[in-house]
Amino acid sequence: MSMKRTNVYADPADLEIIKRAAQRRGVSEAEIIREGIHLAALASQSWDEPLFSRTYAGSGRSPSQQEVREAVADASLRGVEPDAA
C-alpha cells in the first residue's frame, strides 16, 4: 500500500498513551497512529447501501416463540439450517 506523509498536532497526553500502547503491542507508534486514522476514516464514511439489504418473503410479522421453537426443532431433526420466517 502506498502511503503519503503528513504532519498532525496531537495532545501530549494522547502521544504518551500511543507510546505505551506501541510498546505493549510491539509495534511502532506510527502504526498505532495509522490504525487510528483508518478507524476514524471508516467511522466518517457513508455507505451507498444499507448494511442489511437482503429481503425475505414472509408474513410481515415476527414469529411467535412457539413457531421459532418448532422451526428449530424441525431443522434439528432434519439436520439442516432452519428456514428464515
How does this model look, in words?
- This protein has 85 residues and is an all-alpha fold.
- The protein contains three helices and no strands.
- The protein has helices spanning 12-25, 29-44, 65-78.
- Helix 1 crosses helix 2 (29-44).
- The mean pLDDT is 84.
Topology:
Blueprint: H1 12-25, H2 29-44, H3 65-78
Percent of residues in helices comes to 40-55%
Class from helix and strand fractions: mainly alpha
* N-to-C order of helices and strands: HHH
Q: How would you name the oligomeric state of the polypeptide chains in this document?
A: single chain
What is the alpha-carbon Rg in Å? 24 Å
Summarize the main sheet.
none
Compact description:
The chain is 52% helix and 0% strand.
Which properties best describe this structure?
single chain; mainly alpha
